Amino acid sequence: MMSGNMLYSQTYKQKYPQGYILSHRGDTTYGFVRLGDNFKDQNKIRFYDQFGVKARYTADRLQGFGYEGKHYVSRQTPYLYSGLFSDTVMFMQRVCDGPAKLFRFFTRKSVFTLKKGPAYVEYLEKPDGSVHEVSLVFKWQRIANAFLDYPELAADIRNDRYKPEDMEKIVDAYNRWFQRHGRTIRKKKK
Prior knowledge:
Elements: H1 4-15, E1 18-22, E2 28-34, H2 38-41, E3 44-49, E4 54-58, E5 64-67, E6 70-76, E7 89-96, E8 101-109, E9 116-125, E10 131-133, H3 140-145, H4 151-158, H5 167-189
Antiparallel strand pairs: 1-2, 1-5, 2-3, 3-4, 5-6, 6-7, 7-8, 8-9, 9-10
């Protein structure tokens, strides 16, 4: 005979992806994430723990959550978008992690074409703590300026060696470069 916990796990496993939530204290609880759409899930998620207890969490109540290799962290909503697309705190997808981090949040309409459909805004957090919007709506010159400490990459961006949807590749290239050279560059500036 199956225990209640096993029965809950089997039922939810068939319906929802396995995932986790991370409390502000750093405690991780494993269970199942009930997904809505990207826009709604950045404000609140529904979660079933391993015992079948259902809860709804807003971004201000958790440090983050994840499922199927995707990770979301609770972040301040960028000033220009606060109230427009979200509350003051939202779950942003952490697309790249390393010395520089790339975060993405979603909108109802494309900020680029104003057509209905999936759209997102991306933010780069540099190792020095500075934050840059690197969304497709901006010209490559502005995006290149976020990478001026790596002049070759900035030049490649300005010279259209990357497509707008290559932001993950750009951040990965920056992180590899920073791990080799960044520490010596920061010491020189001091």
